[in-house]
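Please, structure for the following, as tokens.
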Amino acid sequence: MQPVLQAGVYVYVVLPDGSSLPSQALCMFREPEGVTVILEKTQAQALSLEYSFECAWIGLTVHSSLEAVGLTAAFASALTQAGISCNVVAAFYHDHIFVPVEKAQAAMKVLQNLSQSRVM
């Protein structure tokens, strides 16, 4: 599991009713209360969208099965012990972690240490 810090600052946006999905959206999830998208902060600003949670995107390069057990718990526990919140998106090939932007470097160190100390 080699974590990779992606460039940019990312934000969570709840799209206003009737809005179309921004083509720049990194991720989209539809809930009863609305549609949430994750996109770069500059893109949200350019589209005049209200946003919250300025975060850094860390991708885990390990190809993890959607049925795998324990990977999310391992890195979430390690980040929790370091006092770093994380929001996880599991895609088909990799897991992606969104952490507060000001804690990105600390999160990278935690994940790198975890990667070196465990066989993932």
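The longest helix spans residues 104-117. The first strand starts at residue 3 and ends at 5.
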